[in-house]
Specification:
This protein is mainly α. About 75% of the residues lie in helices and about 0% in strands. The chain has 21 helices and two strands. It is globular and about 60 Å long.
């Protein structure tokens, strides 16, 4: 077939043909110099920089009859096909490198919040046991509200910004081909107007103010709900901490919306730097406010709130260099789309929280020692899930970008690679935990009875890791194509089935029944993911189509 397409499109066509060939998929790159890679069965394009302008020649040639040497090569490839298929799962091509490049900074940023909580706990723990318990109860309430409303907005923002950014980038490329810009005009074009960003920040500001008011006004009622009576020594410090902590609700959700925008730009390093700066300030202020100034629990709350405002300021400052964040370009139907998608994800979050809360309550009925061992396993399990969550957001951002551009072949390649990376990561984590969980559990307690219970849960912690990785990655893929309804309904279904199993199995089998119920919950989510991808329903129909 002769190369009849325009020169700027020919390298992309070559990349797509390579990706769909029987051999290992190649990376489709959008940088001109990277397009000039040699590819099997195609003559490599030649890039010349005469006059500072790249030129691409003879990217695709007419396919000629293969001679004996080509046949011999194919025969050799067929003989080595089995081994190459195994190695394919461990091969780092361009897409896999992109996934890891997004996921590694993201997991570090995600780990920053638990580390900050540990620092606060360490400082407050030296004040007294009542204060430590009070802060723990207040943080649990605050985190519940945060997970319920803030995380859905973060995920929706990532998908919508990635879609809009991809479409906007394609429009910019078209305009650059059709128009000549002066340097000053190009500089002015660097800051874009993306309604998805403006809408997300506006919603974040409104939701944050409502959360702040609700937590301040309802702090006493919330303490009653979780069972802290008025005459308890925990009551006063708990209310005090929660009231001050509430002032950090607006910057937290605004910072998360900004993080979602950066994720949509495939940038997870900027949020990492901002979160790191905020956490460093929090540790410094803890050391100054709690003891030297004698503010106690109030000092811990003020340190956290101040660090959150710093993180939000850094993110907004950096984001304003990329887009017009104070634009009035907020579309009514865009807000409705945000609210509808966010509502679905709130339902999904409720299903997850209810299932985990039910499991914890059933474990508490087994007694203090079994509950302590269960808590160790659960915390290790949840901490490891941060890595899987980072892989999910990498897949979400990359898939949303390719899906919005209409690059469905490249979208399928992203899908394959994120599942492969997730599977390999899950197996690796399972092996590492199986070997090192015994030593890791010693960091939490030295009570032999508790350690015995914790080590009995090693099968739950390890075997569930590959399943967890696929389940989390599937969530990211749903969000990447805005398949929020299926993500919500499938999680609600998995939560309902698992909760019924927990209620039946826990009284008979104790912790073994609880761990089995949680593994069932994650397994059903993973199965739902494979079923959705295989059924080719909803937005997946066009991705699996052969047309571009």
């Amino acid at each position: 077939m002769a190369a009849t397409s325009p020169p700027t499109r020919a390298p992309v066509a070559a990349g797509f043909t390579l990706a769909s060939s029987p051999g290992p998929p190649g990376r489709v790159s959008f940088t001109l110099c990277r397009r000039c890679r040699a590819a099997p069965r195609w003559r490599a394009p030649r890039c010349s920089r005469d006059g500072g302008k790249p030129a691409v020649k003879d990217v695709i040639e007419e396919e000629t009859p293969r001679g004996p040497k080509t046949d011999d090569k194919d025969d050799g490839e067929e003989l080595s096909g089995t081994g190459r298929g195994v190695l394919e799962w461990f091969r780092l091509d361009g897409v896999a490198v992109d996934i890891l490049g997004i996921a590694v900074p993201a997991v570090l940023a995600l780990a920053a919040d638990p580390i900050t909580a540990l620092v606060d706990t360490a400082f407050v723990g030296h004040i007294g046991s009542a204060e430590l318990a009070a802060v723990g109860a207040s943080v649990s309430i605050f985190n519940l509200v945060s997970k319920l409303f803030n995380v859905p907005l973060l995920n929706v923002t990532t998908s919508f910004v990635a879609e809009q950014q991809a479409v906007d980038a394609d429009n910019d490329m078209t305009r650059e081909r059709d128009e000549l810009f002066t340097p000053q005009e190009k500089a002015n074009e660097q800051r874009k107007i993306l309604p998805a960003v403006s809408t997300s920040l506006a919603l974040a500001g409104g939701i944050g103010l409502l959360e702040m008011i609700a937590l301040i006004v309802g702090s006493g009622t919330l303490m009653d709900i979780i069972g802290i009576p008025v005459d308890s020594p925990m009551r006063a410090p708990a209310e005090q901490f929660l009231t001050l902590r509430a002032y950090g609700a607006p910057p937290i959700i605004v910072a998360l919306a900004a993080q979602g925008a950066f994720r949509g730009f495939l940038d997870t390093k900027t949020p990492l730097y901002a979160v790191g700066a905020g956490n460093l300030l929090n540790a410094i202020l803890d050391a100054v406010l709690i003891f030297p100034l004698g503010l106690g629990v109030s000092g811990a709350a003020l340190a956290t709130v101040t660090s959150e405002y710093l993180t939000a300021f850094i993110l907004l400052w950096k984001l304003n260099k990329e887009v017009e964040i104070f634009s009035w370009n907020i579309i009514g139907d865009g807000i409705i789309r945000y609210l509808r998608s966010g509502g679905l994800l709130i339902g999904r979050t409720i299903a997850v929280l209810l299932t985990l809360t039910l499991a914890s309550s059933l474990a508490a009925r087994e007694g203090p020692v079994p509950m302590a061992g269960y808590e160790i396993c659960l915390q290790v399990w949840l901490t490891i899930s941060l890595l899987n969550d980072a892989l999910a957001l990498a897949g979400q951002a990359l898939l949303a970008s390719e899906y919005a551009k209409g690059n469905y072949i490249q979208a399928r390649l992203v899908l394959y690679r994120i599942l492969q990376v997730g599977g390999v990561t899950g197996v690796t984590l399972a092996a590492a935990l199986f070997i090192g969980f015994g030593s890791l559990s010693l960091l939490f307690t030295d009570d032999p009875a508790v350690l015995d219970v914790a080590r009995s849960g090693i099968w739950f912690v390890t075997i569930s890791q590959p399943v967890n990785a696929i389940a989390f990655v599937a969530d990211g893929l749903y969000y990447g194509v805005s398949d929020f309804a299926y993500a919500a309904y499938s999680t609600l279904f998995a939560g309902a089935i698992s909760s019924i199993f927990l209620l039946v199995a826990a009284p008979k089998f104790g912790l073994s029944g609880i761990w089995t119920g949680l593994t069932l919950f994650m397994s059903l989510r993973a199965i739902a993911g494979f079923w959705r991808l295989g059924s080719k329903g909803g937005p997946w129909e066009i991705i699996w189509s052969e047309s571009e």
